Amino acid sequence: MVDTTIDIVPMEPVHIDQVHTIECASFTVPWSRTLLLDELGSPDGLNFAAVARQETSDIVVGYVCARMCCGECSIYKIACRPEYRRKGIGSRLLRHIMNRAVQHDVHDFTLEVREQNAAGRAFYENRHFVSAGRRKRYYDDNREDAIIMHFPEKQNRTEQD
To answer: Which of 63, 87, 127, 134 has the fewest CB atoms nearer than 10 Å to its CB?
Structure first.
């Protein structure tokens, strides 16, 4: 891999084709380009791309989509290109949206992860998210349960101090 600088930037329409490529490589039922574009129009959205700055071009290597509502941040998606996984980019994206949400006085974070997604669950557990419940047969493609994960407000306030 070429030496690169990776910046976290607000996701823009120009990023959507690359984000969609990552989406398709990362999720069993990927969001469409249209849905990803629609997310950019959400006034409460936190949508960011991790962009590798290279000599000849920039490439989107990861992204995050989340929304803030009623004092809570719902994390919808975090994904990285396969060749950029396990390099800390997902953690940087997660920290970035959490810090942004806290700037809006949002301290409560939730998400759903497939029950069988051991790597995803471990990623969040290693970042102090805890299992907070289950959505039975949540996923349409195989009726798999979703595990609701929560980052306790108390934990967040402690880490911010």
So the answer is: 134
